[in-house]
Every structure is written in C-alpha cells, then in structure tokens.
Write a structure and sequence with these properties.
alpha/beta; five-stranded parallel sheet; 17 helices; 17 strands
Length: 516
C-alpha cells in the first residue's frame, strides 16, 4: 500500500474490483497530484478507515457481497461531525437495480460508472476531498470549543475552590480575634487580657500576611510589582526574617537555628522582598514540620553567589508533587495545610520574587525526611565607604510626626506607638484640618491616608508640598489603596514612601529613624 499522507483529510482509500482497476485508478489520481491507499479487501479498508479517511472508493460488488455489513457499519459508525464520502464504482450504471440495492444498503453514496472515465472519477474524488477537508476543519473547531469549555469549567471549579478556601482562611483568624476581644471585655477577665492581646496580634499578622500575599501574587502575575533595589546584607535580612517567624516555630516547640556569617554578604535586592522570600520559606517549613521538629536557616557564600538555604525535617514532598511545588494553589499535604492555614500561594510568590531578582530557587525533598529550599543570588561588591559610614552614624532622634487618617482608632494607635518611641505626634482626621495643623506644627514626618472625607490624600500631599514649612518633610502614604496606579499617583503628588495598610510599625519606626 502506498501512503500519500498521514493526515486523515488527505487519505483516499481505494478498493478496486481487480488489481488492474486499482492500478488504473491510482494512475488517474496521481496524474492530478492526488495520492491514494490501495486496499486489497474490505477488512483492510475498514481497518485503514478507523485511522481516518477522506474518501472511500469501493466497487458495488464489494457491498453487495458484504454479508457482514462492514461497509454499512463503517458508514453508520461515523461521529456526528463526519459525513464520510463513499464513491461506489458501478458497471451497471447509476440507474441499475444493483445500484439501488447499494444505496439502500449504505444509506448514501456517489455512483461512478466503470470502466473509469478520467474526468468523472478525478472530479468526484477532488470534490469529496474538498468536502472532507471542511468536515475536518469543523471537527477541529468543535474539539477546540470542547477543550475551551473544559478549560473554563476547570478554571471555574478552581475559582470556586479557591474562594471557599479563602473564606475559610479569612474566617479562622477573624474568629480568633473576635473571641479574644470578647474575652478581654468580659467581666472579671482582666487576667486574660495579655493572652487575648497576644492572640489578636498573631491572628492580625496572619490576616495581614494573607492579604499581602494575595495582592503580591496578583501584581507579579500582571507584571505590576516593582522592586526597590539597594545593596543589602543578605545575612542581616535573613536573620531579620528568622526573628519574624520565631514565634510561629515556638508555638509548635520547633527548633529554629540560624547559621549566617558575621561578615556581610551583599546582594543587589529589595530588602523588603528578600525578607519576604526568606520569611515565606521559613513559614512554609514551620507549617509542614511536626511539633518539636527542626528547621535550619543557612546563609553562605558559594563562589560569586549568596546562598540562602531553608531545611526542615518535616513531612517532605512526594516525587509527584515536587515538580509542581511552585505552582499556584499547590499544597503538599491538604490535611496538614488546612490545620495550619494558607492558600498555596507562598511558594509561587517566592519563586517569582527570586526570579525578579535574577536568582534561582530549587527544592529537594524525601517523604518523611523533610525538604530543602535553596535560593541563589549573585553577590555584590557592597556599598561604598561613604554610604556605609553615613549609615553607621545614624542615631535615633525625636521627630515631629503629623498623622492624617480618618480612621480615628488607627490614627490614635499609630500615634501612641510613635510617642512611646519619643516622637512628638499630632493627629488630624481630614485633609482640611491637616493643612492648618501642618502650618502650626511644622512636621518633619507626615503619615498620610489617601481615602479622606474631604480632600483626598493626593490633594493634601500636593497642598503640603506647596507649603514652605513642609517642602522638605518626609511624606509617607499609609493607605489601603495599594495598586500600581494609586502608587503612581502618589509619587506624582509628592509622596516619598508608600505603605499599604496594615503597616508594619517597626518598619515605619525604622524609616523615621533614618531621617538625616
């Protein structure tokens, strides 16, 4: 058999009454640039047709003598999109009784008189091919629509699962906070207030981290997240990240060890994002490590790279799951993950942040023996001497801080925190009074919300920048509007820094301390 094409829409199957007729039919088709597959009997033809066919050509006697009904079965078994062209070669002519029996047997067919006439035969095959190609294009279109519908259904299912999981993750810390507040306010419950505050602090941090990760994943996915890179000591950032998650490890009586060199390992990185990378890896290790397990954080120099390694002796990752561990919404052990919370987005965010820094991350694991996550970042020569000296000479100085926020509780609590650090604080709850307060108070630092009741934060920032006494003030946005366009408007209005609520008060205090 000659195989002119593997594409079903080009496969012409020819069963001729004699080998001479087969050779003649093949010659006629080849002269017109058409190939065909010569089949010696009906069994071979039906087998070839199961692999796809554009046109089937058979003599009428093959159908009349086909007691098994193979041709009729072949035509009847076609899928809904298929109308397989069947050309029947008839010696008696289209109007003969034999031809009528053929049509009654197979349903429909094109009858071609033999001996074959070149023009009639080639024209019938070419016409059938054109029709068949349209059918296959329609089949491909239907398949694509089915696949698209399946993908949409799968996406819809995953969206519903994600929303259900998100609702669960939000309700859990909220329930704990509501319970802690209720306990603290209960009569004769003064002794429980410290524990209640600790619960509120921990659960608030969980909520804050959850919301931040969600927003960051969305920004990274849309290419909207920008790094604020500077030359930082990777060891110092890693140690800070370890301190931030130590309380989580302590609650599970896990041992968290940090091995980082005293001498700095400088990298060109966004310090906030680098701490987020290490913090997420440590959080993940704590989540998937049992009570009293061990977690280690190591920072070393390897050639021209700073290598940050987080290792645990937890549940480990199966070989099937390991290649997908950085995929969105992937979680190793659903039952354990559910007890510890999380949406399966932490490692996705880590990988994308590492790649934005030009680094790499890899994971190795053995089920029941823990996991190792290794981040590699290119080393930097370090800051120049003048910059290092200026940093070393920074001292804590009392500053005049103006807080402008219409959320009275938020403004008051932030003010109380800054006053405990020795700063002078004044609070305004709207934009109009803020301008008067600024002229009277001459603040060195202005913490400004965006969503104010009269003038919005952008207008207030522009107004204050025009005031000579505030022209050199540090103006910091502290707001729930943390999308890229809001931040761009903030920079244009004159903000020096932009923090999303809830702001880390330690970070805010550190920023104020760095004022010259």
């Amino acid at each position: 058999m000659d195989r002119p094409s593997d594409h079903p829409a080009e496969r012409v199957l020819l069963l001729a009454p004699t080998s001479k007729d087969a050779a003649a039919g093949e010659v006629l088709l080849r002269r017109e640039g058409l190939g065909c597959i010569i089949c010696r009997d009906l069994d071979v033809l039906c087998e070839e047709a199961r692999h796809g066919a554009a046109v089937v050509v058979v003599p009428e006697e093959a159908i009349l003598l086909d007691r098994a009904g193979r041709v009729a079965g072949l035509m009847a078994d076609q899928p809904p999109w298929s109308d397989l062209p069947l050309l029947v070669l008839t010696a008696a002519g289209p109007g003969s009784r034999r031809s009528m029996i053929v049509l009654q047997t197979v349903g429909h067919a094109t009858l071609i008189r033999r001996p074959l006439q070149r023009s009639a035969f080639v024209s019938a095959v070419a016409s059938a091919l054109r029709d068949r190609r349209r059918q296959y294009r329609m089949r491909d279109l239907l398949l694509e629509r089915e696949n698209q519908a399946a993908r949409l259904e799968e996406a819809d299912r995953r969206k519903d699962e994600f929303l259900a999981m998100l609702a669960h993750e939000l309700r859990n810390p909220l329930a704990a906070i509501v319970g802690a507040v209720g306990l603290a306010l209960a009569p004769r419950a003064a002794q429980f207030i410290p524990d209640s505050l600790d619960v509120i602090r921990r659960q608030s941090n969980t909520l804050s981290r959850l919301v931040s990760d969600l927003l960051d994943v969305a920004r990274v996915s849309r290419g909207k997240l920008e790094l604020r890179r500077e030359i930082v000591d990777a060891s110092a950032v890693a140690r800070q990240a370890a301190r931030s998650v130590k309380a989580i490890a302590d609650r599970k009586r896990q041992t968290l060890t940090v091995d980082a060199p005293v001498e700095p390992l400088y990298v060109d990185a966004d310090p906030t994002r680098l701490e987020q990378i290490v913090g997420n890896l440590l959080n993940n290790a704590a989540k998937y490590t049992e009570q009293e397990g061990r977690i280690s954080l190591t920072v070393v120099r390897e050639g021209y790279e700073a290598v940050i390694r987080v290792e645990d002796d937890g549940v480990g990752i199966t070989p099937e799951m390991l290649p997908r561990i950085f995929d969105l919404f992937a979680q190793v052990d659903q039952s354990l993950a559910r007890t510890e919370g999380g949406l399966g987005i932490g490692l996705t965010l880590v990988k994308r942040l590492v790649e934005m820094h030009g680094g790499t991350i890899e994971a190795t694991s053995e089920v029941g023996h823990g996991s190792v996550f290794t981040v590699r970042l290119r080393l930097h020569a370090g800051p120049d001497a003048a910059s290092a000296e200026a940093t070393a000479q920074r001292t804590t100085t009392a500053r005049r801080v103006l807080i402008i926020d219409d959320n009275v509780d938020s403004a008051r609590l932030m003010g109380l925190f800054l006053e405990t650090l020795g700063h002078q604080v004044r609070v305004s709850n709207d934009g109009t009074s803020a301008a008067d307060a600024a002229r009277d108070f001459t603040p060195e630092v202005i913490l400004l919300d965006i969503g104010l009741p009269d003038l919005d934060g952008y207008e207030v920032a522009r107004l204050l920048r025009r005031e000579p006494l505030c022209a050199r003030s540090l103006i910091v946005a502290v707001t729930g509007y943390a999308d890229e366009s809001s931040m761009t408007r903030g920079w244009d209005a004159g903000f020096d820094h932009y923090f999303a609520k809830p702001v880390d008060l330690e970070v805010l205090a550190s920023l104020i301390e760095q004022l010259p």
